[in-house]
Design a protein that fits this description.
With 133 residues, this protein is an all-alpha fold. It has 5 helices and no strands.
């Protein structure tokens, strides 16, 4: 049975970016659902996901290499560390935009919460609008 999340054949595949984004979004949603169900913090989930990523990288080396070796695994882990470092450096470049988006999302959520709270108290948005502050 063909999965709707088909893995691209290699890194040069035209659909690689689209497939990456699709899989990333699906896994992120599953992880966040799990975190919500078990009341786990985002920072704890980040540590778990990092640990899983490292384990998967090691398993990938062992299973995808014709003759895996300790030295080869160590070299692959060095490459992995460089790749992660590159990702963190890239994320730093967009830190200002990320924080601006996060603050906007928090403000929108607070506004929704305030609106819902006002409706629960029997006050609609129209009731509050006419009142002086």
């Amino acid at each position: 049975m063909a999965d709707s999340y088909d893995e691209p054949e290699n890194d040069t595949d035209e659909g690689y970016d689209a497939a990456f984004d699709q899989h990333r979004a699906a896994l992120y949603d599953m992880l966040m659902e799990y975190a919500d169900e078990h009341d786990l913090s985002d920072s704890f989930m980040a540590v778990l996901a990092s640990d899983i990523g490292l384990s998967l990288r090691m398993v990938a080396y062992a299973s995808e290499t014709e003759k895996p070796s300790v030295g080869g695994l160590r070299l692959d882990l060095d490459r992995y560390a460089r790749e992660l470092g590159d990702s963190v450096r890239d994320a730093k470049k967009y830190a200002a935009e990320f924080i601006a988006e996060a603050k906007a999302a928090q403000e929108a959520e607070e506004a929704e919460d305030d609106e819902a709270e006002g409706e629960e108290d029997g006050e609609g948005a129209d009731d509050k609008a006419g009142r002086p502050s």
